[in-house]
Amino acid sequence: MKTVVLANQKGGVGKSAVGCQMAYYFALTREKRVLVLDFDHQRNTSKALRTGGIATVSAVTSSQILLSKLPTVEAADFVVIPGDGELIKMEKKAAEHNAFASRLLAFLQSVDDQFDICIIDTNPNPDIRQLASLVVADFVLSPLQLNQEAIDGIGDLLNHENIGIRKIQATINKKLVLLGILPNLVEPTPFQRDNFRDLSKAFPKLLIPMSPGFAAIKKTTAIPEAQAAGLPVWKLGKTSARDAWAHIKPVFDKIADTMEVK
Ligand SMILES: Nc1ncnc2c1ncn2[C@@H]1O[C@H](COP(=O)(O)OP(=O)(O)OP(=O)(O)O)[C@@H](O)[C@H]1O
Ligand SMILES: [Mg+2]
Hints:
By secondary structure, the protein is α/β, with parallel strands linked by helices. The protein has a domain at about 1-135 and about 215-260: P-loop containing nucleotide triphosphate hydrolases (Rossmann fold, 3-Layer(aba) Sandwich), CATH 3.40.50.300. It has eleven helices and seven strands. Strands 3-4-2-5-1-6-7 form a seven-stranded parallel β-sheet, sandwiched between helices. Helix 1 (about 15-30) runs parallel beside helix 2. Magnesium ion binds next to helix 1.
């Protein structure tokens, strides 16, 4: 099983939407066994996946993964472990932070044969939930919006003292691979085009190469509509959604190739 975490301390950049759509992509188009772990107490991912009824919603909730010893996950090919209200309390339990990461790791090892890919959605706070996820993951994907504030935040994303990806790669999780920064909600405005150009000059190695240029997901009504309906974008049955999927699918193909999900 390969584990990928969606992480960015910026809110509203598409971590949950990209994570859900990627889960559908792996489960339904590549026929992989998919586990989704929602570590965000906002529970956007849990809600979207529950609404659609395509994934099995586990009776285990994600705080239990951190708090208890190896909960058993339902035998199904596409399972979401929903977030819960306890998650917000995890940060205050500082004495248990090491145990949280150890339990998460042990849990993922315990379901290693049960799933092909685990997708972890995180909250936008730089806390133990994000840290524990980055400590155990094989890959991290960081959706980002093309505004100056978000681009300025890349330094933090990489070098934040607790949860900076480079810090974690250099210390506690040497196997962690940054799949890349994924510009999302991209609009064809001169402002965003300039920001994308500046970003690709400043951080070419952080972007995901695709021909032509770099991977990105355009702003499209299909994504919020799909999320609200709890459906994969390609199942919305609208021309706008088919157009959206035509540009999103190659991005997920590229990510799947890089992750070599078997
Ligand atoms: N490419 C896109 N085009 C249009 N809307 C999008 C796109 N990607 C995400 N959205 C919408 O933007 C909003 C924010 O996305 P999402 O909730 O996935 O962000 P997030 O990073 O998970 O936020 P948070 O940090 O609060 O968890 C949602 O309404 C989502 O449906
Ligand atoms: Mg989210």
